[in-house]
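In response to the reviewer comment on reproducibility (Comment 2.3), we provide here a single inverse folding case reported in full, input and output, so that an independent group could reproduce the run without further information from us. The structure tokens appear first.
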């Protein structure tokens, strides 16, 4: 049985360092494989012949700049929004963002907000992919039932 903590670790791995890392999960085998360049946990042959699914990164789950702007809208004064927009039009935006938040006493709130958004998005992705997993309390989480009509509608959008 896949454990959410393992899936989250794989997500964190693929999101680290600009998203160049890869990780896969197999519901059938109930495990996650991290693809280290020198020591991959599964071979290319296993990857091609098994039920392996690529674990998404932050960009895949739309948790980049949009998450920043959602946070800004919720927690910053309106007059600070333009500063955030300007900040993210330049290189080094995330370092400046963290400094900006730290000055306002909001850095920990950002970390908590970001972490919760990541967890929620990853759980939604697991549901969308119809993947069953065990949560951190030992509960088995099964995907919601999706009708054929819903799947067809998703493909059109």
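Designed residues, in position order:
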């Amino acid at each position: 049985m896949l454990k959410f903590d393992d899936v989250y670790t794989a997500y964190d791995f693929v999101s680290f360092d600009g998203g160049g890392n890869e990780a896969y999960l197999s519901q059938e085998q109930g495990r996650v494989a991290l693809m280290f360049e020198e020591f991959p946990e599964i071979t290319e042959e296993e990857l091609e012949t098994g039920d392996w699914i690529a674990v998404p990164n932050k960009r895949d789950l739309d948790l980049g700049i949009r998450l920043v702007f959602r946070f800004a809208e919720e927690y910053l004064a309106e007059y600070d929004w333009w500063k955030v927009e300007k900040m993210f039009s330049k290189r080094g935006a995330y370092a400046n963002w963290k400094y900006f938040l730290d000055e306002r006493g909001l850095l920990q709130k950002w970390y908590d907000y970001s972490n919760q958004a990541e967890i929620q998005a990853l759980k939604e992705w697991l549901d969308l992919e119809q993947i069953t997993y065990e949560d951190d309390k030992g509960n088995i989480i099964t995907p919601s039932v999706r009708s054929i009509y819903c799947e067809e509608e998703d493909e059109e959008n």
